[in-house]
Amino acid sequence: MFGLKGKSFLTLHDFSSEQINYLLTLAGELKNKKRMGIKGDLLTGKNVALIFEKPSTRTRCAFTVACVDEGAHPEYLGKNDIQLGHKESVADTARVLGRLFDAIEFRGFSQEVVTDLAKYSGVPVYNGLTDLYHPTQILADLLTMKEHLGELKGKKFVFIGDGRNNMGNSLLIGCTKMGVDITIIAPKSLWPEENHVKVCEGYAKLSGSKVEITESVEAVKGADVIYTDVWCSMGEEDKAKERIALLKPYQVNEALIAKVENPNMIFMHCLPAVKGYEVTEEVFESSYSVVFDEAENRMHTIKAVMVATLS
Question: What CA–CA distances, in Å, run from 155 to 142, 150, 177, 190, 237?
């Protein structure tokens, strides 16, 4: 359906708005089926390799449960379990795994690795997170927004914090492709790369949305979504002290929420959260926080990706 059979899921750059919308619709249907206790068989007989260079809670659990729910077998491969990129090249590992598995998930550092896995394996490859992109998270975010806001097109989405990380990059793509106005609020040194912004502005022109990159926290006014992420991504722990100093004015707290002036807004976070830094306990635990709906939706949207590309 929509040209998704056999397709890898490496970045949302590779997907049209129609394909993304189809995945969101399918995720909603699969979520309803699970809520009704209906056991699925759409992935029966499939074997999925789960490669993890980086630790994970939501991504690992979401892929595992999604596989089992629809009859597939997930095989976890930690960084010490295989020779990927060490004693064996990525290309050779990909060609071996492609003969043994029906699909491969990769969560690690390099986008080049997940791209090469897709290039050489001959099976669908899913990006569970790299330093550049986190596309499965964005699908969960979009589904959560649809559930709470009713629609996507024309909504105002504000990401505040480290704007040049994998979440900032991926949210720019997802929002602009789906007609969501996106504002990234960050100190200028942490703005997304100019070339990436220009590409996403092109998507925005097609969908009728807008892109704003600013240092001003006043830009939260009228937001339908306030979104933040950790100030130090995995592998950047040595920069924690300077990041905290730089990003302290961008903390999501009750004073910032008051500037939004939208009683129907929601707060989102991809988790894990470092409460007291990028977000306060009060906001995280508030009635408008939907972070655990968002976390659950990782599984439903990942299941949709696998069903659409494998069944």
Answer: 11, 10, 13, 24, 34
Is the torsion defined by CA of 156, 158, 164, 168 positive or negative? negative
Instruction: Give the whole-angstrom CA distance, residue 216 versus residue 160.
Output: 10
Q: List, for residues 192-233, the tens digit of each pLDDT value.
A: 999 999 999 999 999 999 999 999 999 999 999 999 999 987
The answer to whether 111 is a known ligand-binding residue is no
Residues in Cβ contact with 244 at an 8 Å cutoff, skipping those fewer than 6 apart: 231, 277
Q: What burial letters (b/e) apply to 240-270, b meaning 16+ CB within 10 Å?
A: eeebeebbeebbbeeebbeebebeebbbbbb
**271 annotated among ligand-binding-site residues:** yes
CATH no. for 12-134+297-310: 3.40.50.1370
pLDDT over 90 (residue 121): yes
Domain residue extents for the chain: 12-134+297-310, 137-294
Distance CA 143, CA 280 (A): 25
Positions marked active-site = 107, 134, 137, 229, 270, 298
User: What's the fold here for domain 137-294?
Assistant: Rossmann fold (3.40.50)
Q: What is the pLDDT of residues 272-298, one digit of tens each?
A: 999 999 999 999 999 999 999 999 999
58 is in an annotated binding site: yes
Count other C-beta atoms under 10 Å from residue 189's C-beta.
10
Q: Which residues of 165-185 are buried (b: 16+ CB within 10 A; e: fewer)?
A: bbbbbbbbbbbbbbbbbbbbb
